């Protein structure tokens, strides 16, 4: 019982610190000269204060193993026209005005 309560507290605390986008994506672009990929959301994403780019508001490094997994998940969701949930880190270190991605999953 204590473990369940602790897990609920930890999840509640961590989810409050990050913004989530829920919906479909309309595009993914990966650049060869910077190794980053950006996500175009189908509706407005309201994330971190640094996320000022309306067109491509979310960014991840496509060269890491995590980035490759994110890209595969996004492409699968886009091909199957499924909704995704994308969590941001609250930082814009990879691309100015575009929030760094924390996680992506396909909605059930």
Can you describe what's shown?
With 108 residues, the protein is α+β, with helices and mostly antiparallel strands. It has one domain (18-106). The chain has helices at 2-16, 65-80, and strands at residues 20-23, 25-30, 36-41, 58-61, 84-88, 99-106. It starts with a helix and ends with a strand.
The first-to-last residue Cα distance is 27 Å
Unreliable parts: 3-16
Radius of gyration: 14 Å
- Helix segment tally: 2
Name the average pLDDT: 86
The H/E string reads: HEEEEHEE
Strand line-up of the largest beta sheet: 1-5-6-4-3-2
Counting DSSP E segments of at least 2 residues, the number of strands comes to 6
Given the helix and strand composition, which structural class is it?
Answer: alpha+beta
Beta-strand percentage?
25-35%
The geometry reads as globular
For the largest beta-sheet, the strand count, sense and barrel status come to: 6 strands, mixed
How many domains make up the 3D coordinates?
1
Give the proportion of residues in helices: 25-40%
């Amino acid at each position: 019982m204590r473990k369940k309560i602790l897990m609920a507290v930890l999840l509640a605390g961590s989810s409050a610190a990050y913004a989530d986008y829920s919906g479909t994506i309309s595009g993914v672009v990966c650049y060869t000269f910077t190794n980053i990929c950006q996500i175009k959301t189908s509706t407005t994403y309201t994330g971190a204060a640094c996320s000022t780019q309306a067109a491509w508001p979310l960014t991840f490094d496509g060269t890491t193993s995590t980035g490759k997994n994110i890209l595969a998940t996004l492409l699968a969701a886009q091909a199957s026209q499924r909704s995704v949930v994308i969590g941001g880190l609250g930082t814009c270190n990879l691309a100015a005005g575009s929030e760094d991605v924390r996680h992506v999953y396909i909605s059930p």
